Amino acid sequence: MPAKKKVVWKKTDSGIVQEKVRHPRNYKPDAELPEDKRELYTQHLVPGSLWRVASLHLNPEASNPSIEDHVHPYANGLDWMPWGSPIVHNRGELAIYLGTTRVEEVSRDKKVSVLRHTFAIGARVYITRNLMDWEPVV
Prior knowledge:
7% helix
């Protein structure tokens, strides 16, 4: 009986660096506006209108290497000061409403296109899911 041949696979380096696949951000619905604020907020959702930060602290969402970054970061209102964050906006800082932008997110393995509100604070533009993190200046 002939001896079995042993096959040895040699790993070769092609020199091509492959980037990890980045996925769209997971869909989260916009936070509901309370009934008493709905009319006030909707009449001020005009591009160029003056708003201010209503949450105690507003911080850009941390980037994740597996999630596609949008042109502008998403902003989250926080009740606590994030440690080590280089960018934090405090309650009362002025912002300008810029209108809406369309972003792609994933809901149950299906891409969805969603309109999100955008605000500018200084030279930074933020996308928000929660209008309660902001308040119109009246």
